């Protein structure tokens, strides 16, 4: 039935709506259905010249002014399909390029990627690389233990007796407010010269080691000076290691005293604010210094805990959490009369970055009230540790209690839960200034193999929340050689600028004895570490033989990726490891969960799966076939995987032995040939060692040509595989110009350019002037159009990318184009591969006009006839564009073409931004499916500073009563408070953020965050479909039709004339997010395995050293200075205005 013309609010006959509400199943035409043979399709030129005119079949008409019938829209769709196919056949040159490859068959060989052999070879190479580092580690650890054993302790050692290079000396000399400059350092500090070293991305000196000492540790103390004295001997071992293995990077000894000695020497990269680096808090040190931990932190929040004491506890808990790694499990609870978890976590959870963030935020909400009930707190903690129905570390078990003091020893609780075996260590922390008897707290720790600490002020927090690691290290030391096993860390950011690294760690034990017949020492001296840059591991993997969509990846026992093409953190915090799970690096599904589990278990395997992959520009989703193959890397906790699409089973290897042909093809790389042969972009690959890299492709090509004039493609300093393939593809694409492109008139078919890109690294764009507007990545493997074309059959349309927040496209000089590309598939001797992609760039405006003509009722090149009251025809996209909306939308939901002139500048936008009502209807009718995922590697602006943050934002100011109280002056607080105030004056930004730094410092401006990504892709409906957007008098009819052999959806719809039908808008833009609900995720934790070794018990352990207070002896000068500082006061400083908006 015909649908009459409408006006806003006018009613329509119900039968018309009913007839079009559901699609007619009899009229559907699936993508695999046969169509009547119409001979070879020919393109319809913009001006419809008679010789090129397609046979336009007259669409069956209807009564006056009706919405197009389904078969009419199908007819228009066929014309569009034929036009696209005709242009691509003539200009794409797929068939011609196949013939060119076959004609040059003698110039290349077809090689096979054998996944199992490949992955085993790479795993073996990585194992060999890491094994060399292991041998160096063992030499260092053995030497360190012997040096310390031979060292004689000196009580009277002085600063001037020690000569070393202080890595922070240069920065401190440049800072007139530096503490060492102020008081004058007595140590004999070396001044060194440095040379730039590309391997370290830094200036280094290979003749010396460097020493870094944390800011809050006094360099002149007897302990530190003795440490510097005996570790100096490590210098020769470091240098000998490098002589044996010149590829070694940073070699580091992290001492339990906080001293870091590393080789080669380089100046410390001091931050603008106070340098809080302490090696004992680095992920690699924590992992090497103790076995995994199950920790329950209980915090006393009774009424006596208030003000500064409560703030100290909150900060202490946050600092304690920072001593945990992903191998550890933790929960935090507060207690008074009752105990309850501070967060939504009701059991032990993995101490990963996101879970620790939940704890840190929850801790800030603790409020002091009620009375102290140690029994409630400890019973809760023991119950947590006895819960065996959850995933946990199953190694060291401990309870950390923070309190302001109390008299109850809760001996009955310990007798019930922990004695006589004492499998749970208890550490107690007395926080704040008070006059309580601390004997009960000391007793709790000493009778449960733990330790007692005092935290009188903020200056004692960092030291006393990390020294428990010394206690946990006792069983390791007593285990001796059995515990001397190298462990490899998660990925993390190197503090000295090396980039992302993994570190091999080996504990260093104290082998001394207090006297003849005495028990041997049970202290850990520190951890030895050697860095391996991820880039060095990547170099062992196949670079270009796997194709654009093949790759190698590796994961650890936590499922975190060590290698993966999607491991690209936008910003890194050197204090935290880079923990990207394999299931977050890719789009998660059941098959990948199974693969991940098998890899963590150290198994070999192979599996072909259908899975979803995200495009390189993160705008599209493709359903693809992938082959996964994996093996363990022996002697490590890593497992290696290889991913190959079926079309990458084979690849081409050029064999250009004919030097005359090499020279001939090379000439087509010269800019002098571009005018006739088209512009050539070459992939910026490492073709030769002496080739200078450049981000400017023109400059890179110039550097390449200059080098090739000096060396041959067979030179030993060059990668012969890359060079031969590049030169071969240069010649092959030139033949495509000669056979196809050069004799065609692009303007006749409204084309801005034609192009070909190859696996060999060539992108040829014709004509030469089109290169001025070519914005695609010159590396085909990093170009989204190239990778998507390989994964999709047919023609892949890609409109120019637009952001809703940016200004519309500028349609001037006909430079805006739509890319259409398709893969070239070869079949050579039964072996199938896709070595190239070809395509065209459509002129947007011209093809928008052509689109209207193709979706019209024209039967010849005559003028269009407008439907009116006295004519009998259906509306079409050309004549009735005031009433009818016709669009082409790609598989990601982005607008490609429209019959509405005012929408041309919106091409490339997500269609919901153009017509939210219609896009929602397409989604609801299953034309599109939505995929949501989270990007855990994004960078965002930081949140404004607040008073509830974990970092210190203020200091305790004593009252007059405190000044009059002699006990207060003689307590430990005096020196600690002076220390805080001194740091506050020197490093004022420790307490208050500096607006200038907040604006100018990238480290301040960006921080890691989570972004939610939403992509759309074609759903289950892939045929013709009629429907109605039901909205009363403002309802809209629409018809949608998939275009075969393309990634396009053709939609014809009535234009909206009423605004009251506006429905919810689908969002595609990336948005800031907190990620999935952590409280729900911990209920179904991902599979993981802890380290294979655990040292949490040794029968010979001496637990008599179990606690002490914090003592800072004050002096008269200090007290006077303190009073003056307090009287003078600190001027208030304005807070910066930093907004938390995604970058």
From TrEMBL:
GO CC annotation, single: voltage-gated calcium channel complex
Transmembrane segments: none
Keyword hit for ATP-binding: no
Keywords: Calcium, Calcium channel, Calcium transport, Disulfide bond, Glycoprotein, Ion channel, Ion transport, Membrane, Metal-binding, Signal, Transmembrane, Transmembrane helix, Transport, Voltage-gated channel
Main location class: membrane
Region Disordered: start-end pairs: 1-38
GO molecular function, one term: metal ion binding
Recorded superkingdom: Eukaryota
Cell compartment(s), UniProt: Membrane
Ranges where the VWFA domain occurs: 294-472
CDD domains (UniProt xref): vWA_VGCC_like (cd01463)
Membrane-topology annotation of the record: Single-pass type I membrane protein
Stored InterPro entries: Ca_channel_alpha-2/delta, VDCC_a2/dsu, VWA_N, VWF_A, vWFA_dom_sf
Family according to the record: Belongs to the calcium channel subunit alpha-2/delta family.
Listed name of the protein: Calcium voltage-gated channel auxiliary subunit alpha2delta 2
Originating gene: CACNA2D2
């Amino acid at each position: 039935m015909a649908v009459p013309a409408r006006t806003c609010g006018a009613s329509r006959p119900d039968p018309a709506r009913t007839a079009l509400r559901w699609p007619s199943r009899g009229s559907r035409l699936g993508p695999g259905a046969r169509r009547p043979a119409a001979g070879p399709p020919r393109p319809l030129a913009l001006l419809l010249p008679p010789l090129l005119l397609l046979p336009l079949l007259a669409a069956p008409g209807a009564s006056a002014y009706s919405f197009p019938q389904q078969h009419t829209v199908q007819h228009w769709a066929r014309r569009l399909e034929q036009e696209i196919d005709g242009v691509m056949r003539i200009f794409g040159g797929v068939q011609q390029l196949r013939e060119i490859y076959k004609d040059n068959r003698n110039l290349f060989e077809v090689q096979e990627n054998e996944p199992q052999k490949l992955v085993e070879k790479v795993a073996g190479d990585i194992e060999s690389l890491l094994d060399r580092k292991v041998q160096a580690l063992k030499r260092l650890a053995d030497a360190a233990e012997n040096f310390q054993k031979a060292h004689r302790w000196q009580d009277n050692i002085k600063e001037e007796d020690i000569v070393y290079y202080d890595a922070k000396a240069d920065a401190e000399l440049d800072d007139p407010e530096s503490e060492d400059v102020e008081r004058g350092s007595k140590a004999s500090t070396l001044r060194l010269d440095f040379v730039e070293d590309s391997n370290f991305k830094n200036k280094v000196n290979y003749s010396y080691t460097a020493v870094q000492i944390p800011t809050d540790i006094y360099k002149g103390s007897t302990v530190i000076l003795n440490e510097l004295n005996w570790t100096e001997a490590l210098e020769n071992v470091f240098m000998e290691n490098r002589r044996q293995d010149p590829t070694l990077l940073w070699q580091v000894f992290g001492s339990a005293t906080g001293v870091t000695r590393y080789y080669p020497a380089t100046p410390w990269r001091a931050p603008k604010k106070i340098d809080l680096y302490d090696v004992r808090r680095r992920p690699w040190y924590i992992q090497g210094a103790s076995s995994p931990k199950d920790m329950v932190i209980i915090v006393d929040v009774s009424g006596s805990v208030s003000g500064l004491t409560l703030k100290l506890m909150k900060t202490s808990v946050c600092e304690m959490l920072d001593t945990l790694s992903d191998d550890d499990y933790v929960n935090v609870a507060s207690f008074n009369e009752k105990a309850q978890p501070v967060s939504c976590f009701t059991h032990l959870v993995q101490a990963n970055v996101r879970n620790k963030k939940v704890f840190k935020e929850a801790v800030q909400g603790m409020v002091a009230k009620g009375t102290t009930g140690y029994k409630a707190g400890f019973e809760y903690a023991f119950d947590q540790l006895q819960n065996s129905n959850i995933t946990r570390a199953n190694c060291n078990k401990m309870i950390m209690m923070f309190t302001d003091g109390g008299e109850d020893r809760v001996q009955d609780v310990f007798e019930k839960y922990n004695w006589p075996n004492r499998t749970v260590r208890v550490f107690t922390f007395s926080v704040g200034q008070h006059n309580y008897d601390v004997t009960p707290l000391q007793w709790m720790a000493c009778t449960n193999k733990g330790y007692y600490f005092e935290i009188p002020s903020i200056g004692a927090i960092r030291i006393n929340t990390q020294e428990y690691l010394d206690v946990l290290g006792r069983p390791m030391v007593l285990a001796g050689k059995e515990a001397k096993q190298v462990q490899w860390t998660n990925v993390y950011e190197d503090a000295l600028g090396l980039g992302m690294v993994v570190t091999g760690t080996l504990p260093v034990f104290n082998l001394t004895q207090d006297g003849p017949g005495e028990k041997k020492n049970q202290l850990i001296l520190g951890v030895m570490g050697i860095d391996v840059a991820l880039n060095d591991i990547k170099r062992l993997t196949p670079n270009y033989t796997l194709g654009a969509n093949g790759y190698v990846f590796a994961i650890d026992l936590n499922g975190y990726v060590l290698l993966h093409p999607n491991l690209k953190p936008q910003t890194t915090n050197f204090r935290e490891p880079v923990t990207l799970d394999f299931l977050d690096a890719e789009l998660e599904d059941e098959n990948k969960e199974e693969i991940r589990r098998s890899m963590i278990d150290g198994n070999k395997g192979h599996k072909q799966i259908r899975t979803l992959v995200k495009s390189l520009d993160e705008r599209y989703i493709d359903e693809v076939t992938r082959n996964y193959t994996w093996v363990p890397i022996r002697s490590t906790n890593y497992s290696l995987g290889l991913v190959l699409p079926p079309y990458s089973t084979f690849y081409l290897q050029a064999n250009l032995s004919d030097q005359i042909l090499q020279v001939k093809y090379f000439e087509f790389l010269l800019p002098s040939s571009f005018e006739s042969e088209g512009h050539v972009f070459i992939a910026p690959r490492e073709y030769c060692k002496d080739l200078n890299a450049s981000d400017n492709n023109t400059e890179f090509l110039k550097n390449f040509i200059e080098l090739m004039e000096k060396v041959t493609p067979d030179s030993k300093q060059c990668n012969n595989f890359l060079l031969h393939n590049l030169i071969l593809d240069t010649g092959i694409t030139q033949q495509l110009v000669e056979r196809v492109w050069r004799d065609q008139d692009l303007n006749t078919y409204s084309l801005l350019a034609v192009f070909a890109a190859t696996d060999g690294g060539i992108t040829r764009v014709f004509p030469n002037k089109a290169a001025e507007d070519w914005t695609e990545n010159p590396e085909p493997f990093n170009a989204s159009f190239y990778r998507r074309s390989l994964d999709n059959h047919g023609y892949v349309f890609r409109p120019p990318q637009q952001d809703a927040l940016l200004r519309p496209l500028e349609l001037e000089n006909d430079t805006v184009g739509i890319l259409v590309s398709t893969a070239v598939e070869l079949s050579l001797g039964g072996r199938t591969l896709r070595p190239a992609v070809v395509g065209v760039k459509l002129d947007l405006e011209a093809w928008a006009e052509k689109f209207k003509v193709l979706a019209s009722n024209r039967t010849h090149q005559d003028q269009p006839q407008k439907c009116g009251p006295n004519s009998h025809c259906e509306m079409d996209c050309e004549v009735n564009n005031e009433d009818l909306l016709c669009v082409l939308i790609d598989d990601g939901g982005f607008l490609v073409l429209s019959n509405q002139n005012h929408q041309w500048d919106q091409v490339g936008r997500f269609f919901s931004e153009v017509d939210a009502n219609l896009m929602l209807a397409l989604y609801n009718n299953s034309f599109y499916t939505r995929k949501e995922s989270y990007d855990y590697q994004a960078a965002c602006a930081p949140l404004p500073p607040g008073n509830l943050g974990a970092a210190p934002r203020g200091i305790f100011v004593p009252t007059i009563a405190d000044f009059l109280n002699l006990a207060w002056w003689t307590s430990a607080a005096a020196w600690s408070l002076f220390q805080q105030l001194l740091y506050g004056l020197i490093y004022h930004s420790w307490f208050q953020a500096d607006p200038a730094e907040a604006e100018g410092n990238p480290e301040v401006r960006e921080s890691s965050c989570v972004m939610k990504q939403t992509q759309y892709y074609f759903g289950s409906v892939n045929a013709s479909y009629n429907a109605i957007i039901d909205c009363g008098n403002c309802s809209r009819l629409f018809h949608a039709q998939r275009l075969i052999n393309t990634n396009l959806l053709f939609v014809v719809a009535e234009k909206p004339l009423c605004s009251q039908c506006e429905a919810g808008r689908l969002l595609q833009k990336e948005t800031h997010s907190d990620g999935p609900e952590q409280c729900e995720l911990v209920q179904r934790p991902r599979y993981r395995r802890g380290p294979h070794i655990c040292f949490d018990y040794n029968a010979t352990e001496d637990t008599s050293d179990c606690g002490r207070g914090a003592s800072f002896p004050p002096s008269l000068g200090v007290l006077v200075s303190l009073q003056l500082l307090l009287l003078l006061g600190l001027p208030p400083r304005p807070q910066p205005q930093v907004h938390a908006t995604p970058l």
